Amino acid sequence: MAEVVPEEARKVVDALNRVEEIEDPVARAVAVSQVLKDFKERAPQLREMQRVAIDLLRAQDVSYRQIAAQLGMSLGAVQNIERGHGSAWGTKPRKKPVTE
Fold this sequence. Notes:
Layout: H1 7-20, H2 25-59, H3 64-71, H4 75-82
Helix pairs in contact: 3-4
C-alpha cells in the first residue's frame, strides 16, 4: 500500500529539499539555522499533537501497532509518547542525576 502524505507535510518536505539545494554554503547555513530554530520552538506543540491523536486512538481501543502504522511512527515512539516522553530516547527524563 502506498504511503499517503498529507499535502501540508509534502510542502514542508519540499521546502526542506529546496533549503538543501541552496548553492551558497553561507546562505544555506543561514536557512538551516532558521529551520532548526523554528523546529526547536515548535517541537513541543508538534509532540502534543501526536499525543492527542494517540490518546484518541487508544480510547477507541486501537492497538499500539495499529496506531504506529496509521501515524507512520515506530511502535516504541507511540508507547513513549503515550507515557509522556518524547518520541526519542534522549527526551526521557533521567531517573538519576548525571554525575560528571
